[in-house]
Amino acid sequence: MEMDNNLLTAMVERWRKETHTFHLLEGEMTITLKDVAMLTELPIDGDAIIESSQKPLNGWGQFISERLGINIPEEAQEGLRVPHLHKSMLLIPWLVRTVGELPEDATDAQIERYARIYLICLVGGFLFPNKSGGNMHCMWLRVLLEDWDEIGRKSWGSACLAMIYSELCKCTDPKTKQAGGPMFILQLWVWEHLPTFAPICTANSWGPDEPLRQWAYGARWIGAITSGTSLDGFRQHLDRLEFNEVTF
């Protein structure tokens, strides 16, 4: 899905950190836990994701080596300014390249390691990306390298919503230039509740009775191309937004 930075910027300008709501002409709106659950089907029940960012006793490098069987170079390699593991930040693209492709005769241990790395990419590069675009804080490894059942019992949807709120509040500071976190969820929310800002059509539009409804509802926007509206265009539309243009 193409990200519409102009749309997201216009919405950020309407965000008030005192109320955690968007202030619009006809009133206030906000993204809720129910929205996250409907759009992504991420679990919203279960244990809160509360992990310490403190380094393990023997360091993150040893922690990763023991659990994934991957040794991380201590020095930066050619073309990189910093090592693959620097200040508790792990370079995800390097991790993927290091593992390579899964062989056809892979053992159970190899398959499990690939599954772990898939989760690392999903969480660090998609659900909770930071502004660097390719690094993930190693605190997530405490969760993703746990027992599989423990991972499944976490409230991932709640964590996504908390990070969206946090990033939106940070963006109210005029000095902030970028936002991290799952902003794709916010964009899906805007398209669903303010449909005049949504793409006219998508390659995967379906109604609630269609067979593909087994996917998360937000997946119907896969492949959607943004409208190309300018930032000023979104601002002007929000200034005159009418009640009948909002879907609840």
Automatic annotation (TrEMBL):
Pfam families: PMD. Residues 2-247 form the Aminotransferase-like plant mobile domain. It comes from the Eukaryota. GO terms for biological process: meristem maintenance. PANTHER family: PROTEIN MAIN-LIKE 2, PROTEIN MAINTENANCE OF MERISTEMS-LIKE. This is Aminotransferase-like plant mobile domain-containing protein. It comes from Linum tenue.
